[in-house]
UniProtKB/TrEMBL annotation:
<keyword id="KW-0274">FAD</keyword>
<keyword id="KW-0285">Flavoprotein</keyword>
<dbReference type="InterPro" id="IPR006076">
    <property type="entry name" value="FAD-dep_OxRdtase"/>
</dbReference>
<feature type="region of interest" description="Disordered">
    <location>
        <begin position="266"/>
        <end position="286"/>
    </location>
</feature>
<feature type="domain" description="FAD dependent oxidoreductase">
    <location>
        <begin position="5"/>
        <end position="355"/>
    </location>
</feature>
<dbReference type="InterPro" id="IPR036188">
    <property type="entry name" value="FAD/NAD-bd_sf"/>
</dbReference>
<dbReference type="InterPro" id="IPR045170">
    <property type="entry name" value="MTOX"/>
</dbReference>
<keyword id="KW-0560">Oxidoreductase</keyword>
<dbReference type="Pfam" id="PF01266">
    <property type="entry name" value="DAO"/>
</dbReference>
<protein>
    <submittedName>
        <fullName>N-methyl-L-tryptophan oxidase</fullName>
    </submittedName>
</protein>
Length: 377
């Protein structure tokens, strides 16, 4: 054996799997087709939202709690600043589809929050142009994650513990045999006791054929807009936000460069032919809807896109991730299919995947992510 465990893909989740596996084993090798935190992966775009108040039918709250603690552990291990918590706003219609569903989710899990009236939102956060029926939920533990910093910190910390990292090495085949798993890049091969596939949008071709009908690569785009008074959009004055009002939706982060904010239409991912070929250019319709929505939702933000880009991720048909043993396998494990929503919980799912692959106790709340759920479909 070349090592006990291999991690294929060192991006948003794979880097965290490597970090967590290096805590449990001194024999870990990570494979990355390009370089960790390369800008064409789902890591791109500088930041991701972190929230404890989260609208979703799946039981994410325990994982979010674990992730919060693990982000702080990563900061301690690496010396880097990863999670920046200045609170977060969820804004929407009083009786619309978003806020009532969010509050039901909060009641189930007991997340700390504050319900704000339209008047309170307008007084505290005048940057938002509100509709008459808008209210908000304030999450004091919300904030944003620095994606590049997090990935690079996790990889470096794993290497400090003895993990080996092979950059510019694309694994294109995985074959199980009696006592192990063989990985190949077409020219070289390696053998391991077990492998964890965490290649994001590129994972599909490495997964069992039984799962492929339930997966597709998708394109996610991000946009940035200039602000008129940067002092009004600093993290302490303009926290992260998610806003869904009627058929309009937007999410974003405060200004980190002193001139722009990230503000992106929510829920606009589209299937792509392949992760490597996503169109990085916005369409005219995407540009115009983004400009209109920003113009409607803010004062002090210029509704002109000054930066945009697109990134791939692997989606599942039920939008829940694939974390656990591959169907019918005891040596191949999955940590992929996060459907555009994985980074906030990446540290927690990294630990779940590493523990499962190394035969330690799995997280009791991660059963909904088992790849076996598609076995009978």
């Amino acid at each position: 054996m070349d090592a006990q465990i291999a991690v294929v893909g060192l991006g948003s989740v794979g880097s965290m799997v490597l970090w967590q596996a290096s805590r449990l084993s001194s024999s870990v090798v990570g494979f990355e087709a390009a370089a960790p935190a390369h800008p064409r992966s789902a890591v791109g775009g500088d930041t991701r939202l972190f929230r404890m108040t989260y609208r979703d039918p799946h039981p994410y709250y325990p994982l979010l709690t674990d992730a919060h603690n693990l982000w702080r552990e990563l900061e301690k291990d690496s010396g880097d600043s990863v999670l920046h918590q200045h609170g977060g706003l969820s804004i929407g219609d009083t009786n619309g589809a978003y806020i009532p569903a969010l509050l039901r989710s909060i009641r189930r899990c007991g997340a700390t929050h504050e319900l704000l009236t339209r008047t309170q939102v307008a007084e505290r956060y005048p940057q938002h142009t509100l509709y008459d029926d808008d209210i908000a939920v304030f999450d004091p533990y919300a904030g944003f994650l620095r994606t590049d910093t997090a990935v690079l910190a996790a990889v470096r910390t794993a290497q400090d513990r003895g993990a080996e990292v092979l950059r510019n090495c694309r694994v294109n085949s995985i074959r199980e045999f009696g006592d192990g798993v063989e990985l190949s890049d077409g020219e070289r091969s390696w053998t391991f006791e077990r492998v964890i596939i965490a290649g994001g949008g590129w994972s599909g071709e490495l997964l069992p054929s039984s799962l492929r009908p339930h997966l597709y690569p998708a394109r996610i785009y991000l946009t940035w807009f200039p602000v008129q008074d940067p002092a009004q959009f600093t993290p302490d004055r303009f926290p992260i936000f998610v806003r869904i009002s009627g058929d309009q939706s937007l999410y974003g982060t405060p200004s980190l460069d002193g001139s722009t904010i990230k503000a992106t239409l929510d829920g606009r991912s589209q299937p792509a032919d392949h992760a490597s070929t996503v169109d990085r250019t916005l369409t005219h319709a995407e540009t115009e809807e983004s400009r209109r929505t920003v113009g409607d939702f803010f004062s002090g933000v210029v509704p002109e896109i000054v930066r945009s880009d697109s990134y791939p991720d692997l989606y599942t048909t039920d939008r829940a991730p694939l974390v656990g043993p591959a169907p019918g396998s005891s040596r191949t494990f999955l940590a992929t299919g996060f459907s555009g929503a994985g980074f906030k919980m990446a540290a927690a799912f990294g630990r779940v995947a590493a523990e499962q692959a190394l035969d330690t106790a799995p997280h009791p709340e991660a059963g909904f992510a088992s790849p076996d759920r598609f076995a009978s479909r």
